[in-house]
Amino acid sequence: MAKHVYDFTEGNRNLKDLLGGKGANLAEMTNLGLPVPPGFTITSEACRHYLAAGAVPDGLDQEVAGHLDALEKKMGRKLGQADDPLLVSVRSGAKFSMPGMMETVLNIGLNDESVHGLAKQAGGNERFAWDSYRRLIQMFGKTVLDIDGDLFERALDELKGRRQDTDLDAGELQGLVKTYKGIVREQTGKDFPADPLEQMRLAVMAVFDSWNAPRAILYRRQERIPADLGTAVNIMAMVFGNYGDDSGTGVAFTRDPGSGRQGIYGDYLQNAQGEDVVAGIRNTIPLEELERIDKHSYDELLGIMQTLETHYKDLCDIEFTIERGKLWMLQTRVGKRTAGAAFRIATQLVDQGLITLDDAVTRVTGDQLAQLMFPRFDAGAEKKKIAKGMNASPGAAVGKAVFSSERAVELTEQGEDVILVRRETNPDDLSGMIAAKGILTSRGGKTSHAAVVARGMGKTCVCGAEELEVNTRDGSFTAPDGVVVSEGDVISIDGTTGEVFLGEVPVVPSAVVEYFEGAEPGDELVKAVDRIMRHADAARRLGVRANADTPDDAARARRFGAQGIGLCRTEHMFLGERRQLVEDLVLASTDEERQAALDALEPLQKADFVRIFQSMEGDPVTIRLIDPPLHEFLPDIVDLSVKVATSPDVTEKDRKLLAAVKRLHEQNPMLGLRGVRLGLVIPGLFAMQVRAIAQAAKEVPGARPEIMIPLVAAVQELESVREEAAKILAEVGVEALIGTMIEVPRAALTAGQIAEAAEFFSFGTNDLTQMAWGFSRDDVESSFFHRYLDLGIFGVSPFETLDREGVGRLIKIAVEEGRAVRPDLRLGICGEHGGDPDSVHFCHEVGLDYVSCSPFRIPVARLEAGRAALSDTDSDTR
Ligand code: PEP
Ligand code: MG
Fold first, then answer.
1. How far, in Å, is the centroid of ligand 2 from the Cα of 834?
2. How confident is the model at residue 279 (pLDDT cuts 50, 70, 90)?
């Protein structure tokens, strides 16, 4: 029978798949000899079984009972024992961290009897015991029994009045427990469960269920976390930060996750339990102040943080509790950080001798690099600063202030940019945070919910701007000098400095983009990027080319490090004023008329190619012959029909054009007359393009044209086009590779034949995905993908990240069969996936020669290609 429960002494950090991040790292800390309260982890496999079958796996209850028994022996107390109770926490913990998205229940084991035992245990501290009990009912009621949490909050607020929760005495808390139990009875029709084992069992199932809570689903989708992982559950002996002022709880980072700066960094809250810190119930104090309050624990904490950083060789974040002067570690993990901090920390760790430069490249991601390429505020612009908060997540965001997540979503759907302003955020704000350009809160530190989630998403966030009085009910906030900002007023927030400005502040390109454009690396961040990029470039095996069809794009791509153009689409060259010539081509009724239209197009095409060859200065340029169906270049059928039917000045040409548009109309144009089929059906069309390429190449010294035929499905299609193209090249006296796109499944499956007639393959994974799945690439993402994502049919759209199992298999077949026939067959990819991190790793793994992507993704592709080469066994790009 499968093992579903692991004691903390049994696991280790490498078992994240099974024990979740929290469980694996608790085990690692236990094995390091750090002070971790004893406990055990129920595996995510058990959760998956529960979610699929609707019941826990056979034998789980007995296994849990065995581990609980061992825990009780270790602690010398029994769960919920009336005179001296053991209490436990039940916490979620998935493979990837999902801050605040799933459930936690603390103080399990308390009831009307054991609350007295707990008070006795605490040296007669009645207040503490009743506070713990009310917390249990509140958390359990909300998360396990699904009762509206506001009911409990309101009862607490009424009791507190203007006081802090720490001001409530034992008698008042006892009264609150009574009120809470009344709420439970009223809302569920049943009494709060007094049996400790029953409490624990229900809490475990609630944690399992929370994997599928709407906010968890939304978060996973946003963070591209697969839907089928499930969560592990950690059951741990409780330690108490709410004993009194000699106790407390905190979160800390081994260095600043915002800037990467070295040094201790965190928040501490005296006389409190863990959830109080994140919820922002009371304002935390900076961790440094703990030195004054409890020097012994502070020194021990610093030592442990040092141990963890050296052990994990990375920034770690931790949660800890101090119980009457004794320090306990409740969690650690390699901490989330901003994109800038990731680059800085990676190079700092190299300088400290903790990791190599190879490691440093694998420590940063293409997504982080992409974030650093976002614009920032123009330093020279006039700005009206109205407040300053904490720089929780960098970037520059401008938008209309909104005060609820619902409004954020609504206005965003109407095409507006918004900044979500809240006193503090909670997990229910996730949809608004996703919709908003930036997040501004008046409360909470850099470890608050808003800060942690925004950083994880790469979204600009300023938090804890305490000077702002936020009034969510009226939808406004007041800044110190009396400025009132109401819903709809535009504000600008700077997540790098924490500043808040009234009105729209102009933005300028990022320093990292300027560096890629050729500026010398100036500040520490750009130097770190430069160092890592150089190393990635030296390590990578994959070439990186650009998808570019204009000289400007081509030139930028080159500055960004492109080693050629992998896809120059020629269709934009048929738009604008040239539509007229396409119309002439379509309307031609004789060979002479058609040739005249092509002759008119040829010099224009040639001039385009000359400019592109010039801007690529001798690097290869893959030019794809025209691909889209011709009707795309003609007037809209409805507009034209209306004109012909109603306009007084309709011409004979309009009528002919309408007839042609009707003739060319297709039910499924994506599967119709396009690509190589056009070249075979319209005589002279491809020949004109090839001649224009050849003549342009002849005119530009060093030009390296490559001619690419789109949408080939059978070698016979390619052969006849190839023969004609080769003849023209010979006539003009120019050499060029002739190859094909592999974007139709049949082409992949017959790649061995096709390679006989092609010197290169370029995988057009946009169409290949469309045709492999039978998904219309123009429609399905907005129509039903959200349902597919919810159902976990895939974790991320296959149009974004290459579907390794299906589309990837087609590519593998084509690579193997193509190279078997032609060992020097050159292989690339030019679909959108060429700039997607995970897909770049796939391309490396299957042995392609290059990836081609849009100019702005080129640095990302370079970095990911380097990472792929340096971590051949690790395809997890998160
Ligand atoms: C493709 O299909 O992947 C491709 C690059 O071509 P297009 O997107 O132009 O169809
Ligand atoms: Mg295509």
1. 13
2. low
Mean pLDDT of 528-536: 97
Half-sphere exposure of 190 (CA within 13 A, CB side): 8
Query: 44-53 and 196-210 are packed helices; what angle lies between their axes, rounded to 10 degrees?
Result: 80
At position 390, the amino acid (one-letter code) is M
Secondary structure class of 400 (helix, strand, coil)? strand
- Selected catalytic residue, list 461, 830, 843, 853: 830
Burial annotation 727-743 (CB, 10 A radius, 16+ → b, else e):
ebbeebebebebbbbbb
> Does residue 47 come out as left (phi exceeding 0), alpha (psi in the -120 to 50 range) or beta?
alpha
What span, in angstroms and rounded, lies between the C-alpha atoms of 41 and 12? 11
pTM across the whole model: 0.80
> What's the number of CA atoms in the CB half-sphere (13 Å) around residue 878?
14
Q: Going edge to edge, which strands form the sheet with 326-334?
A: 285-286, 262-270, 248-255, 316-323, 326-334
Model confidence at 877, pLDDT cuts 50, 70, 90, reads very low
One-letter amino acid of 599? D
Nearest CA to 67 among 30, 92, 41?
Answer: 41
Ligand 1, atom 1: closest residue by C-alpha: 764
Terminal-residue alpha carbon distance, the chain: 33
Question: What span, in angstroms and rounded, lies between the C-alpha atoms of 438 and 444?
Answer: 16
Q: Specify the ligand 1 atom closest to the Cα of 832.
A: 3
DSSP symbols for 262-329: EEEEEEEEES--HHHHHHTSS--EEGGGHHHH-HHHHHHHHHHHHHHHHHHTS-EEEEEEEETTEEEE
Residue 517, C-beta contacts closer than 8 angstroms, at least 6 positions apart: 509, 556, 559, 560
Lowest mean pLDDT segment, chosen from 276-285, 297-306, 785-794: 276-285
> From CA 553, how far away is CA 620, in angstroms rounded?
15
Q: How far is the CA of 226 from the centre of ligand 2 (A)?
A: 28
- Which residue minimizes the CA distance to atom 10 of ligand 1? 767
Strands ordered across the beta sheet of 5-7: 5-7, 39-42, 231-237, 88-94, 104-108
How far apart are the C-alpha atoms of 803 and 771, rounded to whole Å?
Answer: 13
Residue 499 is predicted with a pLDDT of 93
**Is the Cβ atom of 294 under 6 angstroms away from ligand 1?**
no
pLDDT of residue 259: 85
* CA angle 280–286–292, rounded 5-degree value: 130
Looking at ligand 1, which residue's alpha carbon is closest to its atom 3? 764
Please count the residues of the chain: 878
Query: DSSP of 516-550, one letter per residue?
Result: HTTPPP-SHHHHHHHHHHHHHHHH--SEEEEE--S
C-alpha 778 to ligand 1 mean position (Å): 12
**CB burial string 305-322: b at 16+ within 10 A, e below:** bebbbeebebbbbbbbbb
Q: Known catalytic residue: 568?
A: no
Report every protein residue that has its C-beta within 5 angstroms of ion ligand 2: 743, 764, 767
762 closest CA partner among 686, 711, 806, 700: 711
Query: Could you give phi then psi for residue 212, rounded to 5 degrees?
Result: -105, 20
Q: Is 427 in the pocket of ligand 1 (CB under 6 A)?
A: no
Average pLDDT along the chain:
91
Atom 6, ligand 1: which residue's CA is nearest?
Answer: 764
* Active-site hit among 449, 631, 833, 844: 449
Mean pLDDT of all residues in 466-476: 90
CA 201 to CA 105: how far, in whole Å? 11
Q: How far is the CA of 797 from the centre of ligand 1 (A)?
A: 16
Query: CA-CA distances (angstroms) from residue 463 to 30, 341, 436, 446, 453?
Result: 34, 18, 15, 7, 12
Closest CA to 442 of 459, 463, 418: 463
Residue 874 pLDDT: 43
Q: Is 853 an annotated catalytic residue?
A: no
